[in-house]
Amino acid sequence: MAPLPTSPVSTSLLLLPVPTLHQLLTPQQFYPSIRQASLLTSSHLTIYLLSSLFQPPPLGLPPSAHWETIQTFLGKVYGEAVRVAQKEGRVLFEVDVVMQGLGGEKGDERRWEGRNEAEEGKGWEVVWRLEGDDSELPSSLPTLPSSSFVLPYSPSPLSSSSFPTDFYKNSPKSPLPATYPVVALGGSFDHIHAGHKILLTMAILVASRKLIVGVSDDALLVHKAHSEYLQPLSLRKQLLSSFVNLINPSLEYEIVAIKDVYGPTATDPDIQALVLSQETVAGGEAIAKHRKEHALSSLHTFIISVISHMTDEELGDDGKKMKEVKMSSTFIREWIASKAASKQD
Question: Which DSSP letter does residue 141 get?
Answer without folding.
Answer: S
